[in-house]
Amino acid sequence: MRGNIHITTILVLTLATFSTFILSTTSSFTNSTGSIFCVFGSSAVYRPGDGKFTVEDINPLLCTHLIFLHAELSNGGALVVSIDTDHDSDPETGMYASFNRLKRINPSLKTYLAVGGSEDSAVFSHTAADVRLRKGLARSAAEFIRKHGFDGIALGWFYPVLKSQYPADRENFIRLLKEMRKTMTAYGQDLAIFVSGTKSEIDKCYKADDVAEFVDYVLVLTMDYHGPWERKTGHYAPLYCHMEHTLPNRRLCVDYSITYWIKKGVPSHKLVMAIGTYGRSYKLVDPLEHGIEAEAEGPYIGGHYTSNPGFLGMNEMCEVLLTVPGAQIGERKWSRSTVCSSI
Q1: What contacts 105, CB < 8 A, 6 or more positions away?
Q2: pLDDT tens-digit map of 69-120
């Protein structure tokens, strides 16, 4: 990321959401064209109290692109369907309609529907391997988003090959993207994909230069390089890598991920860098040893809005900082009021 490379940013608007799709709260994606992608995790409407976040809470003037999380696959993978039909699909009162009415406030805004998630990995693998299902999914996606007023699809297959251990996923993913590109171009629609930011997964899961050929944007998940699953503390999204670490860990940082995608052949103007504004929590073996790489037993309790062990949304972290005696921010380079002023 050093030098004159320009990358897009994604801003996740939902404050303590992203469900299982991307564990994020408020994250941001931008590129050389000045694009800012904002992601709305629709499950946030069900969170209690101050954790609730609705379409009406979105400021569409902050973003050039808005992504709605998310829809899923059915019928063997050939159909795009709403996860919550009662709340999503009503042409007047549904969240899809409300979401796309935001374009009345910002006429230059583009809206995307995210399709898939970690639960759909096996379905994607099955779909991508079958030419009939690939064509069905491409047609269904294009017709579904046209019906509901979206401008594009953000495809979330997490990740080809990785869960299925089926090497053909890598080539079949390209076949799926090629089919979707052809169909969605005919409908005048955009295509974006969520991808891993980890070198080992990039190498295993993608033919990167071919991926770039068929999509408008590559949304790189530059987060969760470290976490409580490692039994020691670590930055979940370090900007630069620690060069004193062993070789694999010298590749676990945002700078390396973005630079590597460019090296693999993706133009920087198509890259979108995800910035997650959430935190990972640890149960320490010794509470007095709380620096980087301090020994941990595993995840600490989650926030009372997200209820996900080892995870705290930005708003949940700020509530801890503002209400829990002794809570502090790192080396106190920032004040609580500065960090939490927008909460």
Answers
A1: 60, 61
A2: 999 999 999 999 999 988 898 988 999 999 999 999 999 999 999 999 888 9
Buried b or exposed e, range 154-185, using 16+ CB within 10 angstroms = bbbbbbbbbbbebeebbebbbbbbebbbebbe
The torsion angle over the Cα atoms of residues 93, 96, 102 and 103, rounded to 10 degrees, is -120
Quote the CA–CA distance of 221 and 159 in Å, as a whole number: 12
Let me know how many helices (H) and strands (E) the chain has, helices first.
Answer: 10, 14
Under 8 Å between Cβ of 142 and 179: no
Prediction pTM value: 0.88
Helix H or strand E encompassing 263: helix 254-263
pLDDT for position 64: 95
Q: What is the pLDDT of residue 314?
A: 87
Model pLDDT, residue 147: 97
Q: Say if strands 36-41 and 65-74 run parallel, antiparallel, or are unpaired.
A: parallel
Query: What are the Cα distances from residue 261, in Å, to 98, 217, 254, 333?
Result: 35, 12, 11, 32
Measured distance CA(304)–CA(160) in Å, rounded: 33
Spans in the chain with pLDDT lower than 70: 1-33, 244-247, 330-339, 341-343
Tell me what pLDDT residue 276 has: 84
Q: With contact defined as beta carbons under 8 Å apart, do 65 and 38 qualify?
A: yes
Residue closest to 5 by CA, chosen among 218, 228, 207, 263: 263
DSSP assigned state of 165:
-
Residue 261's nearest CA partner among 229, 227, 297, 215 is 215
Q: Rounded to an integer, what distance in angstroms lies between the CA atom of residue 117 and that of residue 71? A: 9
Q: Answer for the pair 13, 53: CB distance below 8 angstroms, yes or no.
A: yes
User: Buried b vs exposed e over 1-37: b needs ≥16 C-beta within 10 Å?
Assistant: beeeeebbbbbbbbbbbbbebbbbbbbbbbbeeebbb
Q: How many CA atoms lie within 13 A of 107 on its CB side?
A: 0
Structure tokens at 248: 């694999």
C-alpha distances (whole Å) from 241 to each of 88, 143, 245, 272, 282 are 41, 43, 8, 20, 21
Residues 6+ apart with CB under 8 A from 318: 336, 339, 340, 343
